[in-house]
């Protein structure tokens, strides 16, 4: 299973693939005009279904049961399950599209789906069956609906993840901070960081990472306009970055967070260097293994502001010769019942449906360490408002932003200048042009 916290890493490959697909001739089957697709009638034929590194002891019985149930419901349909290894999956997808061998139903995160959307190789689900939207998580649906230059929605949210906040409450109580006092906004967190740093003479630090685009998104700052232009270099964003600079100057942020030796905010928390970090529910397991004395002192709360969303989905090929059965099967795999069962097996993930998270949490919590179960509940509760980073934001843009924002946090350049330079670089290196 691909780690869904690393979405965006395939974007450069996807962009290159878009050129390949849009320019290819010969092998790719022609797509058909869009319009509603009726999945309620008699279905027949073969549906090829492709997953990403999920054929193993843990998940194979699940998929075999799901396929058997669908074929029992539709006895004239045969589902052929294909599973691709994790390594080289993006290249495999592009090769299949170029040679006209895309499976009918396949698993693509938004960044890998992008070149196929550009080449009209994926079915617009909002046009094929618009009533589907209300059945799925709003942020997950949106993640498959923001492809530059293409209206429509090109994936059904399948399984989701997010981060939560982790606080060393034992440390913070020394400065009069209780769990009820923990901040719920980015500004509140930065202010608390400065307060605690001042009262502890810099011994307790709460700002454990650089400002990033997902922090801007969490603070309600628009990253892109409808044309795909990056527009985050605003006074509001500059104020937020300046808040980090003020916190750094006040001693609320370790210097190593701005350097190449930075091991990550979660690692610094495990080492006791900071009293706050972000991470998924599985971070409780790291605490239990690497820093058990911290585990009982740590509490999990929602991320300040709008929480991030990591999403995987199922897509239907627009080149499929059996779209009614393909769409019906994609719906079946991603319905609430089947998603609940899948995410019960894939502990730490949530269903991509509008409901069902509570059922998953209740089922898996009894087998989890209490701190992890609590973190899972916190994450699931936050998913309704979670939003995904635009897939157009690439690793190269992250690297450049990190360099410029580090200068701003240190006070070498202004926050406004750092954001202006980053926006300029990002727009000059857009993957969708």
TrEMBL record:
The keyword Signal applies. The keyword Magnesium does not apply. It comes from the Bacteria. Gene3D superfamilies: Periplasmic binding protein-like II. Keywords: Cell membrane, Lipoprotein, Membrane, Palmitate, Signal. InterPro entries: Bact_solute-bd_prot1, SBP. It holds the Pfam family SBP_bac_1. This is ABC transporter substrate-binding protein. It comes from Salininema proteolyticum.
């Amino acid at each position: 299973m691909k780690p869904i916290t690393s979405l965006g890493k395939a974007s450069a490959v996807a962009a290159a693939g878009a050129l390949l697909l849009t320019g290819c001739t010969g092998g790719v089957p022609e797509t058909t005009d869009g319009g509603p697709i009726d999945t309620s009638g008699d279905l027949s034929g073969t549906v090829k279904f492709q997953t990403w590194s999920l054929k193993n002891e843990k998940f194979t019985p699940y998929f075999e049961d799901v396929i058997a149930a669908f074929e029992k419901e539709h006895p004239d349909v045969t589902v052929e399950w294909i599973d691709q290894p994790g390594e080289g999956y993006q290249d495999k997808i592009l090769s299949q599209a170029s040679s006209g061998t895309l499976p009918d139903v396949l698993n693509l995160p938004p960044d890998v789906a992008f070149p196929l959307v550009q080449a009209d190789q994926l079915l617009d689900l909002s046009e094929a069956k618009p009533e589907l939207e209300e059945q799925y998580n709003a942020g997950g649906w949106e993640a498959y609906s923001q492809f530059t230059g293409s209206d429509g929605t090109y994936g059904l949210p399948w399984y989701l993840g997010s981060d939560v906040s982790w606080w060393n409450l034992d440390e913070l109580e020394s400065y009069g901070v209780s769990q009820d006092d923990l901040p719920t906004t980015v500004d509140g967190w930065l202010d608390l960081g400065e307060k605690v740093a001042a009262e502890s003479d810099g011994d307790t630090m709460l700002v454990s990472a650089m400002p990033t685009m997902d922090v801007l998104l969490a603070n309600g700052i628009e990253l892109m306009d409808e044309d795909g232009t990056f527009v985050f270099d605003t006074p509001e964003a500059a104020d937020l970055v300046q808040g980090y600079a003020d916190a750094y100057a006040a001693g609320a942020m370790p210097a190593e967070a701005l350097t190449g030796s930075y091991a990550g905010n979660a690692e610094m928390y495990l080492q006791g260097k900071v009293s706050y970090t972000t991470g998924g529910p599985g971070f409780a397991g790291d605490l239990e293994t690497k820093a058990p004395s911290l585990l009982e002192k740590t509490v999990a709360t929602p991320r300040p502001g709008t929480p991030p969303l990591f999403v995987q989905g199922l897509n239907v090929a627009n080149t499929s010769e059996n779209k009614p059965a393909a769409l019906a099967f994609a719906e079946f795999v991603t319905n609430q019942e089947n998603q609940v069962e899948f995410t019960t097996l894939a502990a730490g993930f949530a269903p991509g449906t509008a409901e069902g998270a509570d059922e998953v949490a209740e089922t898996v919590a009894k087998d989890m360490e209490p701190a992890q179960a609590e973190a899972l509940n916190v994450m699931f509760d936050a998913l309704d408002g979670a939003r995904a980073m635009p897939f157009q934001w690439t690793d190269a843009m992250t690297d450049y932003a990190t360099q410029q924002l580090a200068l701003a946090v240190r006070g070498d350049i202004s926050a406004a200048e750092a954001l202006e330079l980053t926006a300029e670089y990002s727009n000059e290196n857009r993957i969708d042009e």
